[in-house]
Design a protein that fits this description.
- Keywords: Lyase, NAD.
- Its EC number is 4.2.1.46.
- Belongs to the NAD(P)-dependent epimerase/dehydratase family. dTDP-glucose dehydratase subfamily.
- This protein is α/β, with parallel strands linked by helices.
- It is built from 11 helices and 13 strands.
- The protein has one domain: 3-Layer(aba) Sandwich (Rossmann fold).
- The protein has a 7-stranded parallel sheet, with helices on both faces. The chain has a two-stranded parallel ribbon with strand order 7-10. The chain has a two-stranded parallel ribbon with strand order 8-13.
- It starts with a strand and ends with a helix.
- Bound molecules: nicotinamide-adenine-dinucleotide and thymidine-5'-diphospho-beta-D-xylose.
């Protein structure tokens, strides 16, 4: 691997990956990030200067991407527009970054023969019923619901086509919902934690029965490193840590951990087309690559995450008012 280029490394999962790689391996890392509202340079402070570089730029900039691919051994592609609610109000940036951006990177990977790992989501598979015993596997048909998930599905299909048609050395992973430090306060868990920390009530969409399969961002990072290291070119791996929880239970747990009454939250307007349940079967990753998650206890992982937000209000306060203003316009 040697020198790794990480797109979107100033975002939530990308920045966790960068910290993880620099702490646990000898690789050097370059981040390419355009610092949208979701990117934060402050998520990449204190990293070793001899092994870390930050490049401010756009993944759609073919010249810049070409120059960066030329001097890196592998690329891990996290950059995306990532928030479902935003995609329902303004889909265009999702098409631009998730589709055109991924295409631009694939063309560079093709030109330079660079090892490419594409980060994707379980949302490409659509959703499951609450009482369905099934979980998503690598063979589940694609059936995305939102502009966000359909552009991620499109980007996955581009990667598969570039592998088959042009021999690009790529792998894909589809992961479930991540939690941990450095997550933007627009997302479910940090929004509720920071609502309580600012004296406001958590906001639950609809009845809160929707289920997400939570995984700690560090477990996502260890899985991606395993795939980069020993994953088979052309293969897709599902990443998940058996963390199914409904949203109501998560809100109540956050309230408990913050010393509040369990019913101190509001029900707000539901998300249009809201996926009911995601659930990942990660047997392939576990059996073929020997990966095991370390954060098996959601409550203690969540408690650590809450402590991180409590100790880092200078990181999230600048995002909070704008994120809440957007939600207020939507009645959420
Ligand atoms: P995020 O929104 O926190 O971060 C995205 C980053 O990409 C930001 O730093 C942003 O500045 C950067 N970016 C956006 N457009 C860009 C462009 N055109 N050029 C360069 N940089 C650009 O997202 P996240 O939650 O960290 O998600 C990262 C990846 O993981 C995404 O591909 C997402 O689909 C995938 N994923 C996320 C989750 C989750 O739970 N958050 C789960 C599975 C997969
Ligand atoms: O205030 C809220 N109240 C609420 O009930 C918010 C922001 C969300 N929700 C619900 C909607 C979802 O059922 O919580 C659940 C999680 O919501 P998000 O954090 O917006 O995540 P989700 O839509 O599940 O998508 C996430 O996981 C898959 C990431 O944002 C995606 O990038 C990833 O692909």
């Amino acid at each position: 691997m040697g020198a790794i280029l990480v797109t979107g490394g100033a975002g939530f999962i990308g920045s966790n990956f960068v910290h993880y790689v620099l702490e646990n391996t000898d690789h050097s890392v370059t981040v390419l990030d355009s610092l949208t509202y979701a990117g934060n340079r402050a998520s990449l402070l204190g990293l070793p200067e001899d092994r870390f570089q930050f490049v401010h730029g756009d993944i759609r900039d073919a010249e810049l991407v070409h120059e960066l691919f030329e001097r890196h051994d592998s690329v891990v592609h996290y950059a995306a527009e990532s928030h479902n609610d935003n995609s329902l109000h303004d889909p265009r940036p999702f098409l631009e970054t998730n589709i055109i951006g991924t295409y631009t990177l694939l063309e560079a990977a093709r030109r330079h023969g660079t090892r490419f790992h594409h980060i994707s989501t379980d949302e490409v598979y659509g959703d499951l019923e609450l009482d369905d015993p099934a979980r998503f596997t690598e063979d589940t048909p694609y059936n995305p619901s939102s502009p966000y998930s359909s552009t991620k599905a499109g980007s996955d299909l581009l990667v598969r086509a570039w592998v088959r048609s042009f021999g690009v050395k790529a792998t894909i992973s589809n992961c479930s919902n991540n939690y941990g430090p450095y997550q933007h306060v627009e997302k479910f868990i940090p929004r509720q934690i920071t609502n309580v920390l600012t004296g406001n009530r958590p906001k639950l969409y609809g009845a809160g029965e929707n289920v997400r399969d939570w995984i700690h961002a560090n477990d996502h990072s260890s899985a991606v490193l395993a795939i980069l290291d020993i994953g088979v070119i052309g293969e897709t791996y599902l990443i998940g840590a058996d963390g199914e929880k409904n949203n109501k239970d998560v809100v109540e747990l956050i309230l408990k951990l913050l010393g509040q009454e369990p019913d101190a939250y509001d029900h707000v307007i539901d998300r249009p087309g809201h996926d009911m349940r995601y659930a990942i079967d990660s047997s392939k990753l576990r059996t073929e690559l020997g990966w095991v998650p370390k954060f098996s206890d959601f409550e203690s992982g969540l408690a650590e995450t809450i402590e991180w937000y409590r100790a880092h209000d200078s990181w999230w306060i600048p995002q909070k008012a704008e994120a809440e203003a957007r939600y207020k316009q939507q009645g959420q």
